[in-house]
């Protein structure tokens, strides 16, 4: 029983009332008939009238109770959680609480207090964030002037930090992303030979010549150990590229050593996500085609600035005017854009080893998996759907469109970016980030529990746009 929702438990309660009432009517009629020994027709008619009467009465009362008590309680619970954990500051809608007695005003008072505290905390965080951002800007500006290309790797060879010079040198081959293995870009044997020369108490650096995985480029580099459990640094001897952007991208949490938990037990905040969206020629995945893909990466609960996937796609066919009215993409705009085979391959590399997140994920995944099948490739990333996660947070009876969820969580989607792949992907990423603490407050804190919550709601929540 404890695993059921409030509405499900109330439904069972009223069902028990119905069954109990019918049982008593049937027993009473049987006793009366057995003692009177009269015509059974009268007892049958009386029994049917009584049974239907009880059934109708309990169903009517149950419906009113569900609409005016159970649903408002579910809604106010979700509202309080979002205000407590997601930084939402708006007031609670009092009109839905009028049948809850003193619970409504009490919830409103708690909400106002939480909102006031949220505003104070947000102001403090904003001031500190501004200070740290200014310091980071100074640091990255200084580092961008140093004529070297730098990579920091964890002990298991995952990318922890890179600068714009490395990105300019390696990204024409494959997207450079935090958390990816460096061996997707550079020769494993060269790095391992250089690493074997290091020792905790002796040699800390090693020179090496290293090639890209396809052998097309060769670099002279220096490998420096950073200490036990801290990984190592690769410094490339290259000419600085004035066009290099994103001077410094990093997440030092990736450098932490130690055993990592199995995926099922991994906290949601410790996973890597690629939040994506597509725009298409229509709504039929088996017949229509993709015209735009947009995606952003989240690492350890934070969006990685600069790690963005955004491309138009030439569908190889005219784009219907009705579709252009929705997303604004015309035939002229996709002329010269990569075909889906090329764009899909780049996206799969960008999303390698990440959890895919989308709003109404089955729709977008149908297009992406069709492309993967046609390319004889695989796209077997786990998938999270923000519709189903929203149902876990706000209840299945709430509206789960992207705009409705954004409004509840106070995520603003600029009008000009709505129905663009990257704009919707960034909005979905913000929504997902705000959902994480609320999900955790409901006990949905690991990959496995998130899958269970989505599975439970997939049977009762219909896909929406």
Description:
The longest helix is centred in the N-terminal third of the chain and has 46 residues, at 40-85. The chain has 13 helices and 11 strands. The model has no long low-confidence stretch (mean pLDDT 83). 47% of the residues lie in helices and 15% in strands. It starts with 5 loop residues before the first helix and ends in a 7-residue tail after the last helix. It has 3 domains: 6-115, no CATH class; 146-255, Beta-Lactamase (2-Layer Sandwich); 266-458, 2-Layer Sandwich (Nucleotidyltransferase, domain 5), CATH 3.30.420.10. By secondary structure, the protein is of the alpha+beta class. The strands form 2 sheets. A 6-stranded antiparallel beta sheet has the order 3-4-5-1-2-6. It has a 5-stranded mixed beta sheet with strand order 9-8-7-10-11, sandwiched between helices. The protein is elongated, with a radius of gyration of 29 Å. A hairpin with a 6-residue loop joins strand 3 (205-211) and strand 4 (218-225). Helix 2 (40-85) packs parallel to helix 3 (103-144) and helix 2 (40-85) crosses helix 12.
In short:
The protein has helices at residues 6-36, 40-85, 103-144, 164-170, 188-196, 321-327, 331-334, 340-350, 361-374, 386-394, 402-408, 421-441, 447-458, and strands at 149-153, 159-163, 205-211, 218-225, 232-236, 248-250, 272-280, 290-299, 302-312, 355-358, 383-385. With 465 residues, the chain is an alpha+beta fold.
């Amino acid at each position: 029983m404890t695993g059921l929702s409030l509405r499900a438990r109330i439904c069972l309660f009223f069902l028990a009332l119905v069954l109990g009432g019918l049982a008593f009517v049937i027993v009473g009629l049987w006793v009366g008939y057995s003692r009177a020994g009269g015509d059974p027709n009268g007892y049958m008619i009386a029994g049917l009238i009584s049974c239907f009467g009880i059934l109708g009465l309990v169903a009517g009362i149950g419906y009113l109770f569900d609409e005016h008590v159970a649903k408002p309680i579910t809604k106010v619970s979700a509202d309080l959680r979002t205000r407590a954990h997601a930084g939402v500051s708006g007031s609670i809608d009092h009109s839905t609480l009028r049948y809850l007695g003193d619970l409504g005003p009490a919830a409103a008072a708690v909400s106002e207090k939480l909102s006031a505290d949220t505003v104070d905390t947000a102001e403090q965080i904003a001031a500190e964030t501004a200070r740290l951002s200014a310091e980071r800007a100074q640091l990255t500006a200084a580092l961008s002037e140093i004529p070297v290309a730098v990579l920091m790797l964890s002990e298991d060879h995952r990318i922890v930090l890179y600068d714009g010079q490395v990105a300019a040198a390696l990204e024409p081959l494959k997207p450079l992303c935090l958390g990816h293995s460096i061996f997707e870009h550079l020769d494993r044997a060269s790095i391992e030979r250089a690493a074997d020369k290091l020792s905790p108490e002796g040699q800390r650096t090693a020179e090496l010549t290293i090639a890209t995985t396809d052998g097309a480029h060769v670099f002279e580099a220096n490998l420096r150990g950073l200490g036990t459990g801290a990984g190592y640094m690769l410094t490339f001897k290259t000419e600085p590229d004035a066009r290099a952007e994103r001077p410094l991208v990093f997440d030092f949490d990736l450098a932490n050593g130690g055993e990592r938990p199995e995926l099922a037990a991994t906290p949601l905040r410790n996973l890597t996500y690629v939040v994506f969206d597509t725009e298409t020629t229509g709504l039929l995945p088996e017949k229509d085609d993709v015209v735009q893909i947009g995606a952003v990466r989240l690492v350890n609960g934070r969006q990685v600035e600069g790690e963005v996937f955004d491309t138009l796609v030439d569908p190889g066919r005219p784009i219907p005017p009705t579709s252009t009215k929705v997303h604004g993409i015309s035939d002229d705009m996709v002329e010269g854009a990569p075909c889906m085979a090329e764009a899909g391959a780049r996206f799969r590399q960008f999303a390698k080893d990440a959890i895919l997140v989308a709003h109404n994920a089955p729709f977008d995944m149908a297009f992406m998996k069709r492309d993967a099948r046609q390319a004889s490739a695989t796209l077997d990333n786990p998938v999270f759907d923000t519709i189903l996660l929203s149902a876990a947070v706000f209840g299945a009876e709430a509206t789960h469109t992207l705009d409705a969820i954004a409004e509840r969580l106070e995520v603003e989607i600029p009008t000009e970016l709505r129905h663009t792949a990257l704009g919707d992907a960034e909005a979905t990423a913000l929504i997902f980030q705000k959902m994480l603490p609320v999900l955790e407050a409901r006990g949905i804190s690991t990959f496995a529990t998130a899958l269970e919550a989505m599975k439970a709601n997939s049977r009762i929540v219909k896909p929406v746009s």
